Amino acid sequence: MWALRAAVRGGAWLSHAVRGRRLPRAALLPPPPNPERTLAGVRGGLGCSEGREGGRRVPRADGRRSRADGEEEPEDAAEEEEDEEELLRRDPLLPAGTQHVCLVHPEVKWGPAKPQGTRAEWQVAEARALVCTLDGWSVVDTMVVPTKTPHKKLIFGRGTLEQLTERIRGSPEITAVFLNVERLATPTKKDLEAAWHVPVFDRFTVVLHIFRCNARTKEARLQVALAELPLLRSRVKSDVAHLGGCRGSSRYTMGSGESFLQVQQRLLRDREAKIQKALERLRSKRRLLGQQRRRREFPVVSVVGYTNCGKTTLIKALTGDAAIQPRDQLFATLDVTAHAGRLPCALTVLYMDTIGFLSQLPHSLVESFSATLQDVAHSDLIVHVRDVSHPETELQKASVLSALRGLGLPNALLESMVEVQNKVDLVPGYTPAEPDVLAVSALLGLGLDELMARVEDAILRATGRRTLTLRVRLARPQLSWLHQEATVQAVDVIPEAGAADVKVIISDSAYGRFQKLFPG
After folding, report:
1. What would the pLDDT profile of 87-118 be if each residue is shown by its tens digit?
2. Coiled-coil stretches, from where to where (predicted)?
3. What is the reported pTM?
4. What is the pairing mode between strands 487-494 and 465-473?
């Protein structure tokens, strides 16, 4: 209908050339001799290293496997791990190498689709941060483009789209476009790529790639693989549509009575079931470790917050753990990790570093990682970290609280949450408006003593611990038992009595066991 439509048809192969192919996709999609192989791609993503957890496996003469460190592994466990690694082999999501990106933000100024509580420049700043998180990627041009039709196929009106096309085509330094929308339909993506002559990416693809790069444990990598399934399904439908338009292509595969689309859909269902099964195995192990931890009665403090708010830096400051290496980028933490620290009363607690939140996070990613965030439900205290230097700090707070409520956390846990306003060193003269909020600078160590005291008080109340002074006999194993089951603060030996007064912090359950074991 317009010259643009001709450009769309003529350049439809470009999105595939970006992926390193020179032929149109239709020429590459004959029914494969073995459909089970069609979902297996190269390992890992581009522009990141996806480390494999555990030791390398080497074959043995008897057909069993062992780790490179010499430890034998049960055959079933080795097969399960091989299956899990097979599930983690995926096609790259983004092109390799340096990319000069044009950031296009569709701005809706009125109507129900208009975002509330934010401004276009803040949304653009977050989108720019997402792009700059990728190695070798930079934003060379930014366009905030008004639109009345954000939900239509090409997002923009005819005139606006023609202006965009002229500007992008006229800038040879642009190698890719990041369209700041949650998800692009496959036909929309192909039409825009054909018109602009460069690959086009949405928030879902960019965030998913960042998740891939930052996933370290096998559970996190499997969760990313689960989140990718909607993207694979949309690609399958698009590929089948191209295949169906080819002359001479067969509708059925290998005489099985299944169409090519049905085969692909079945393989994706099988893949999803296998990923869910592998995740459940890993979660069972984590639940077992959690039960062991609770038996030892380590209180748990979950540290949550918007991505890049300084959670990891704060945990490093509270624990003094030199091994923690915070990174100034979005989604630097993707796995839930535990770090031991001591409170002023000498009680050991575990600080849980969690995945950061993001507004407009694609729904399938939220679903995939909700199980990881369920660990928060088993904590004794939540510390909500906020970046008060960010212009959208109130909107970020609302996003985090909404996500926490969506996890179905106990009301008592939500009501006892401690809010920490971080990065006050970037806001000279800052004072919190709310009375119960703590202002800190995790980087400079400001306000940490007050925070530790607040955490200590909350933990003692949440776990039913109290401070007692107990008299124990030195000839009996009472003192060693207290060192194992409670937090000993001071010991005052009374030689003439053969006893000692021991000041301890002890839970009600431990104190009950002490009285049963050592009556009188």
Report:
1. 666 667 788 788 999 999 998 877 666 766 67
2. 261-288
3. 0.65
4. unpaired
